[in-house]
Each structure stands twice: as C-alpha cells, then as structure tokens.
Amino acid sequence: MRKNTTVLVLLSWLLSGLTAFARAPAQAMRPVATVKAAVPAFSTQQTAEELIREAKLALVNHQWEKAAIAYQALTNDFGDRPEVAAILARLRPAQAMCLVQLQRFKDAIPLLDASIHAVPAHSVAVLQQLTFQRAICELNLKRFPECLSAIAECIAQFPSIMMVAPTEAPTAAFLASEAGQTLQIAHILNARCLIESDAFEKAAYQIALVRPHLDDVHASEATLLEVDAHLKAGQPDRALAVLRSESHRLMAVPVTLNLLTLKIGDALLARGQFRDAIHCFSRVRTFLTVQRQQEERIKALERQISWSELEANSPKEKNSPWINARDRARQELNAFRQTQDFDASVRLRLATAYQAMGRYRETALILEDTMVNLQPAPMLEQTGVTLAQCWSQCEEWARVEKASDLFQSQFPNSDTKSAILLLRGIAQQRDARHVEALATFEQVANDFAKTDFAVRAQFMAGFGQLLSGQTGDALLRFDKFLNHNPQHPLAESALYWKTVALSINKQHSRCIEAAKDYAARYPNGENRVGVILQKAHSTLALHNDAEAVALLRRLLATEPRCEQAPEAQLLLGDALRSSGDEENALAAYQRISSSAGKAFEEGWFKGAKLLQQLGREAELLKQVAVFETERPQSARLGEAILWVAKTSRQVDTQRDLEHLIWEIITHHGNDPAVPAVEDLLAALPKHCADDAKREELEHRLRELREEAERLHKPVMALRAVWALASAQQKTAPEAARNRLLGAAAKASAKDTSSRILADMASAREEIGQTMGAMTLWRDLLKWHPRAIEKDRALAGLITAAVETNHQETALALIARFEGEVPTSGLTGRILLAKSDLQRSSGDTSAAQQSLEGLLSERLVLGQFKAEALLRLADIQMQRGKPELAVPYYQRVYVMYGRWKGPVAKAYLRSAEAFEALGNTEAARRTYEHMLVAGLPGDLPELTQAGQRLQKLEGIE
Amino acid sequence: MKNKIILCICNLSLPLLCHAVDIALLKGGERRPCVIAGVEGETVLVETRPVPDFPPVSVRIPRNQISGIEFGPDAQRDALIQKATLAQLPELKLLWERFAPLLNCEDSPSARIGLRYGLVLLESDNTAQREWALPVFAKIAEYAWHPNDRDAARQGKLRALMAINQVPEAVAAASELLKSDAALSPPLAAEARLILGKNTEAELRQLLEENPRWEEDDAVRTKRNRLYHCALDLYLLPALLPDVSPELALRGLWGAFGIHRLCGDQALAAETARDLIAFYPSTTFAKESAKFLDSLPAELRNSDSERDARDAVAKPIGNKKHENASSSSSSQAAPTASAPASSAPHKRKRSGT
Predict the structure, then answer these.
(1) Fold of A5-243+255-261
(2) What ipTM score was computed for the predicted complex, to two decimals?
(3) 91-130 of A, contacting B, C-beta below 8 A
(4) CB A33 within 8 A of CB A52
(5) Residue pLDDT, tens place only, B200-244
(6) In chain B, where are the structural domains located?
(7) Is B278 near chain A, with CB under 8 Å?
(8) pTM here?
(9) Do B333 and A274 touch (CB under 8 A)?
(10) Which residues of B touch A140 (CB under 8 A)?
(11) Residues of A in contact with B274 (CB under 8 A)
C-alpha cells in the first residue's frame, strides 16, 4: 500500500519528537522568532502543554486548521518564553505542514526556511521533506525560478544517489522508500517547473537522463512530461521517439495518451513528416474505446478504494492517492466526452497524410469507411469529392459511383453535389457506359445550370457522344458549347473535338473552317497538331492535294518530333501519291520511323505497292530487307514477304526472295517472338510446283532440323519439324502426324506458337490421346489468349470434357466459347454438343433452346443446322409428339439435301413418325421417296427403310 | 492540461495494488477478501490471509455458498498470461481448467487465460495440440462475459481453423462474419479480412500462373483486376482502420506489399516497403523490406513520395472548399489528342487531383 509520503513522514517525526518532549517536561523553553499570523488565538487560559496536545491530536486527525490555530496560539502566547522556544523550533516544521495543507503557501515559506536553516539542523530525512515542501510552495505560487532553486536544494539532500548521470542506479528498495519517493517527485517537479519556465529543451534533456532510473509510477509521469517538453520545443519527432519506446507506461492514462498522440501527429503532419504522422494517427483509439478504457481505469480505481477501505484503519489517509487519481480520471473523461466528431477528425487527418503522399487507394479506403460507418458530420461534407477523385485515380469506376450515391444519401443538399455528380459521369464514361454517363452529365447541366460544373458537364456529354459514335449529336453539343462559352478553358478542347467529329462525319468543308477558326483563336493551342491533321485529312478528302501537301510539309517542318509525326508522314505520302508525285510519296512513306509501329507498317505496304506499280522490284527487295531488319517481330512481316512473292514478276526477284526467305528462317528461326518464320514455313509447300520441288523442300527442312538440333536451337528444330509435317500432310498424312506427335513430347509451350500447338493438339486428338491434347489446348490458351486458334482450343477442351464425362466443365467451357469466339466456324458443332449435354441431363427445354439458337446463327454451316433439326425432331418424338417432329424432319431433306447422312436419318425417322401417327400411306410414301432420293447406297438407313417398306406393303 | 499541484502529484498513473485481491461475496452478506485460485468441481478454491503478515492458506468454499465474485488484478497471473510460451503450456492448461467454469463472471480472468492458452497451443508444431485450441476458443466465444472477449475468441477460432489447415471452413466463417449485420469488433473484422485476403491472393496467384498473358485476354483481365482490387482492399483495411492491434495491421501491410510485388507494381511495393520500415522498424518484415528496396533499380530506390510531397504540406481534408474540384475533376478526364484514356486499369496514375 502506497503511503502519503510527506504527511506521514513528518507526522511520524513529529510524534516521535513530541514523545521525547513528553519525557522531559522540565526542559526550559527558549524564546524564538515567531511568525505572527492572522488567526484567532486560543483561549489564553490554555497552557502550552494543552496547546501542544491539541495540535498533536489535530495533526493526527488531519484537522489542519485546528492544528494551525493551536500552533499559532502557542507562538503568540508563549513564543517569547525561552522554555517554549526550543519546542517551537521543533514544532515549526509541523506548523509549516499545516499551512501547506491549508494552501497558505506564502505563510508556510518563512516557517519552512526557518526550519531548513535551524540550528541544530534537523535530520537528513526531515530536511529532505522540508526542502521538498518549500519547492511545492514556490511551484504553487508560480515562482518558478525560486521553485527550481528549492528543488535543487532538495535534491542536494540526497548526496549519495543523484539520479542525474548516476554512477550507480538506485535500488528498488531505495525507490520504494520515502526518501526515494520524495526524490523522484522532486525530479518530476523540476521538469514541470522548467516547462513552466519555457525551458523546454532543458526540461526534456534532464527528464530523459533521470527517467530510466525512476520506478514505474514516476517513469510514466516523466514520460508524459518529456513528450510534452519535446512538443513545446517544436521537436515532434523526438516526442514520437519517446512515445514509441515508452508507450507501455502510458496505457493507464488512456485519454491523456490518445490526445498527446494526436497532438504529436498534428505537429508531424504540419512538418510534412507524413509517415510519422500516420504512425501517430493510427495509434489513436476510437472515441468509444478511449472512453471505455478510461471508464475501466476509473472502475479499477474505485475497486482499489473499496478494497482499501476493507483493510485500512484510517481510510482517508490511505485512500487519498486513489481518490485523487480517480477524481482526475473522471475530470479527464468528462472533458473528453465534450469532444465533437473525434473519430472523424482523426480519420481525416490520417487520410490527409496518405493523400499528400499520393496514396489514393489508402486515402479512399479511409474516407469510404468513415462515410459508411460514422455519423454524417459537417466536416465530412467536403470529403465526398476527394473520395471520388481518389477512386478515379485508382480507376475503380464502380466505386466512384458508389461514393457518389453514398454522399448524396448523407448530404442531399450539399453544395459539392455538382462536383460529385460530374465525377460520377466521368467514371461512367471511362467505364464505357456512355448512356448512363450522358444521363448524369445532363442531370448536372440541368440541376446546376448556373455553375461551372454544368458547363463542364456539357463538354463531357459531347465528348461521350463522340466516343460512342453519335457524331451528329456530339457536333450539336460542341457547337452549343462554343456558342455559349467561347472563353471557357475547355473551349479550345471543344473546338478540337469538333474538327474531329466533322472529319468523321465527312463534313470536310466545315472541318476545314473549324480548323481555321482554331488556328486563329489558339495559335499555340495544345491540340494544334491534331487540328492540322484533321484539316489535312479533310483537304485531301476534297481532292485539294497540293494544299494538303503544303499543309503537312509545314507541319512536319515545324513539329518534326510531335507524336503525330508518323501519321502526318503517312498522310503526306497519300497526298503526294494522289497528286502524282510518286517519288516524293515513296520518300514520305520511307521516312516513317520503325518505332512508329503500325504507321511504319502501313507506310511500308503503301510504298511497296508503289514500287510494284513502278516495276522497281530490286528496290522492293531492299525494302523487304529493311522491314525484316527494323521490325522482325511484326506480325505483318510474313505477310509483306509473301505479298512480294505473289506479286513479283521477275525471276531474279523470285530467286532473291527465296534466298531472303531462307535467310530469315535461319536467322530468326530460334526466336519465338518472330511469327514471320512460321508464316514463311507454312507458305513454302504451296510454292512447290511438282514432286521434285516438294522433295527438295523436305530435304532442306530436314537439314534445317538437323542443324537446329546440332546447334541446340529447340525452337527452330520444332519449327522445322512442323513445317516438314505440313509439307507431308497430303502425301504422307500418317508420317506427318507422327512427326507432330514426336515434337509435342519435347515442345516448350511458352516458346511455341499457337499455330504449332494447335496442330500438335489435333494430332493427339486424332489418335485418341485426349488428355495429351487437353494439355496442349490449355497451353495454347495460356500462352496465346488472343490466338486465332482459340476456338479450336476451346472446342478441343469441350470435346475432352464431354468424353471424360465432366458435364459441368464442358458447359462452362461452352459458355466461354459462346462469349469469346462467337463468330467461330466451329459454333455449330459446339452448340450441338451443348444441346446433347443438356438433353442428357434431362433439360430438354434448354436443349431445344440451344438448337433453335443454332438455327438462327447465320455463320453456322448447313451440316450442323441439319443435325440441329434432327435433334429438335427427336426431342418431339421423345415427348411423344410425332406430329410436331415431322415438320423438323422434313425441313432436313427439303433444305439441306446436300448432307446425305442427316437427310437419310430424317427420311427414316419422319416415316417412323408417320407410322406412329397411324398414317401408313404417308409413311410408305416417305420410304419410297427416300429410296429414290439418290442417297449413297452404303447408308444403313436405306436398308432399314427398305425393310420397313416391305413390311408395310406386306401388312397391306 | 495544467494541474494545480498541491502535494503529491504523482497520482496520475497510480499502480493498482501490489498483490491480488479478489472479493468473494458470500450468501450470508460477507465480503471476504481473498485470492480466487479457480474452481474444482463444485468448490471454489481461494487463498486467504487470516493473519496479515502470515503466509496465505488455501480453502475451499462450496459454490452454492458464493453469490458473486469481484475480481481484482493479479500481476503475477497477468504476467504469466502475457508472457506464456509453449514451455508454460502445462501451467496454462491447469489454470484454464480451473478458471473455465468462471467464464461468465464479470471481470473474470478466465477469458484472458483461455485466449492465451489457445494462442500458445496454436504455436505448437504438434497438430493435435493445435486442434485443442478450437474448442477452447469456441467455449470462450459462447460463455465469456465481456463481448470483447467473445469477439477475441471468434478471432482465435479463425486463426485456429487456418492453423489446422481447415482453410475452406475459415474462409467461409470469415466471409459470413463480414456479411453479417452484427457489429464486429475491429480486431475480429481485421482477422476475417486477412483470412479472406490470403484466400483472394491465392486465387490471384493461381490466375496469374495459369494466365501469364492475362493482359491479352479480356475475360481473364477483368477477373484479374477484380481479384487484385479485392485482395488489396482486404489487406489494407486492417492496416488503416482504428482499434486494430499492431500485429494485425502489420500482417495487412505485409500482405499488401506481397500483392504489389506479385503484380509487378514496383513503385507501390517500394512505398509499402518504406511504410513497413517506418512503422515496424525492429521487425523481420522491415529487414525484408529493406532488402527489397536495395534490390530495386536506382531510380525506384531513390524516389520517395513522402519526400516529394514534403514541399507541399497538405491542409487537412474537410477544411478547404472544393476550389480545385472542378478543374481537377475534368482535367483528369478531359482527353487531349495525345493523351487517350489508359487501357491498363491496373496501373497507378500519379497525376495530381
């Protein structure tokens, strides 16, 4: 149990002193200097002994006023008697104590001074307490320099353990003793005094030296002081460092801890130390948690008080520290409860720090959670725009909309509603939901007509219409915008997009006029190059070639490195060619840099066509070499070479080209990123006019393969094998297939083209290696998601899933097929498989729907439509409705007579349907028609039909 | 807050007792100070000190004679609970067995004992021992007096399910928790999010492994982006929301760092690494983050958004009007001829707003 240090020490000393006095009643009492105080005197009828006894009793019972009066009466009435003087000298400390307790600090100080300097001196323990109380008095009188002096004097009473740069750490026993407690409090007071005197750095320095040697209680207090001193000294990072290392000490003062942490965070935020600020704000608990923790603290203190009362003999004395602590905690809690929007303000600070660092997702998550989970507070009204902007930065368009909805529900009358709606419209537009975006922009324009947001919404609406192909409507909007807002910052962009719209809409004269208008108004406009290009397009479209040429030459001269330079070169070439200047046109095309990608390729083809027209095949070959050198990985390289091969007429060219082709194959054969190698290899067999040429080709491919294997070039080796298999496809299909199977075992899917993977997978399918084929199809989809062969891959996987009875997987794959490759030639086959799966699972309605869907697909082959009709009819037969089945059967042999197999089945089954209907005559006629329909004789249905017919005739 | 200093000023953080004092409330009206040592069968074990300076004696009081117990702090027991490791498992087990029957008593230490016991069990390499944790957490979740303890137990259950490899069950439980209307304590919500985040990350990894060229496939790209955003949110929220322990916040931040690295977003990974170093400097995660930063090219290694932003110290959000909202909102989207909208949703934009 902790003791009230000061009172008990003095009391015990006093009692011992009085006891000693009681044993020597005959001692003379010398007069001493007295302190006259304005207190009523006791009755002069009381003796000195009675007064002393009165004072002692009052002291023991903590009746300070009474004790003070007794002492004063003693002083006043007997102070000049020598025999009382010595007694008074010994009683002076107690008298001073009473005055301190009564908060009469000014009166207490002279008594304390007299006691401190008394001769003979008091014991060290008493001096320690006296000097300590002296400091307390000065502190309460806010005489800080004097207080510091008093504290120094107090600390000086502890010569062996200074605790400031000590040579040895104080022991736990010392710290627990009264002296130790007093010394620790003195150091605390010292720091507090320095802070009050604005000596913040000194306070922090001194308390930091002492803190490690304090006990837990005082170390907590010291930590708070040190943090406070650092903050006041403008050193929030040092305050944070202390908080980080010592936060465990402050857990018992939740309100103080959290408010201090917040304060440090604010200081760090102001200095731009965002991470440290975040660290602080993250540690601040919510309002309810702080409140709860403080309530638990108060409850624990009350429990302590209650338990102490069970044990203590003098509850007030023993419980006063707990009572003080509890009362203080209550005060803090009451003050804290008055805080408005505590949680929201902390979170906004946290969001501010993240936003300053450009961490938009974090900012958005904090703000979104705040708006969802906290009560709408006025300070949150401005955060809606920030939240929407942050989600826009993260390109999470759906969340921008959600933020907009949330904000509008919480702040329906906010003046930021227009900004939020505009952001919502932009998000919808970026998400390609143009209809919704347009509606939102129109809402902004209508509801906030007089605001800048309405104007911007008008612009965005026009732009959205342009994006979605509504060029006419877009033009109207841009015109309206420009008429009403000619000086608006967006007017320049509006005029540019107007030229684009006019050009797309083929209103070339108007486009040229708009471009002139732009040039006049915005000679240095951001979009001037784009406008000139649109003007050039329209000028060319109106066959003003010379003017287009001049315009483009001027552009390229003034802006040679602009982003649109390749497009301008291309257009210049077109204009020059159109004007008959083929040489310069060629030069223009050939000036397009290979880094321009598609523009370069387009220019190359246009230039190549020109050279072809001019008969300059040698030069054409050189251009092929340029293409190969500059853009070997282009998907059009193969196309380019094969086009030249197809269109060239000179033998030399053909020979040189063949040589070039083999050079390309050899040089790039092992590079999987050069698709032209396979284009060329696939085309080679088609140029073999006879068997000799074909054999020569095969020989060369074998050599290529051997060389590749020798040089450890696996990609080239595989390509050579594949090319060999392609060459042998018609003459030796089994050998070709075996080659592919052998290659498949060794191929690395990542480095193998989709074309080769597809052929290898098909080879495995042909010999029934379903699982092996599946692996290759999966590899194809994995490494070539945009491959042309995607439909073959999906179809292969569907087939494998059906064969292995994985119905759900098959249906999922079919759904993927329908979504990703809807125009595939394999659609018919896949939809038939789908209907079969549905039918086998008992869902004939779904199967019927799938088959009818197949019939409506334009691109599906007749063969599959015939099969679909057969299945539809079979479904009706299954339902016991032959009358509904017959028309389907009949459609097969009426509309799809080319497909003999289904036709035969249709005839047979329709006749069976007639039989089921009891219409023997129609059945017989159907069988007869079938037998003369010219169907192949080996069809089993024919035999069955013959037998059925005989039977029918036999019956008749 | 200025305090008038009178005498003893160090009341601010008085420690509460140097020894344990519980109070047994007997049915006769007596309030008996003692130390509750647990329950065995139908008796309550107490230590009492009839003579103050003499050692305590243990007595057993029939439960039916006790109308209530007021628990006080026990520094020794609290220290055991806080610092217990696998070495103290037998002690913890005994303590749990004795105090479990008092779970539903107000301020009982039973929940704390059980929670710690459960967590220590989860540290074991022995699968059977880890499985024991589940019923412990389940009991606390059902019977503990304080709702925070019940939530902590549910959090423990989630961890236990993960520790014994019942991942689908953990994911289902976490998902149900987050979907429910009931208010979850922040640590419980954080734990649930971290579990779902880990699960989403596993799905994302599998998708990326199976689709290395996901950017070229529209359907896969959509799914990839959804998983990416979802995983990031699930990991970041525990690190950003209040009242979540540093341990949970750290796991969240580390998870987000992993997602950024997985998706090749080096710049964001670097920023998150710097966060880890700043917020948790003495952890192994900070060391790993520092290694990662060292491995980056100089341009990324030397860039730092905090340093860049320090020049323009932000004003707190909510204090300023939306003076720039109009220009920033449409300049963000108003396209120019040379700057079409991005087609790569996963890339982070750095333009100011």
Answers:
(1) 1.25.40
(2) 0.82
(3) 100-101, 103
(4) no
(5) 999 999 999 999 999 999 889 999 999 999 999 999 999 999 999
(6) 22-70, 73-165, 174-307
(7) yes
(8) 0.81
(9) no
(10) 4-6
(11) 275
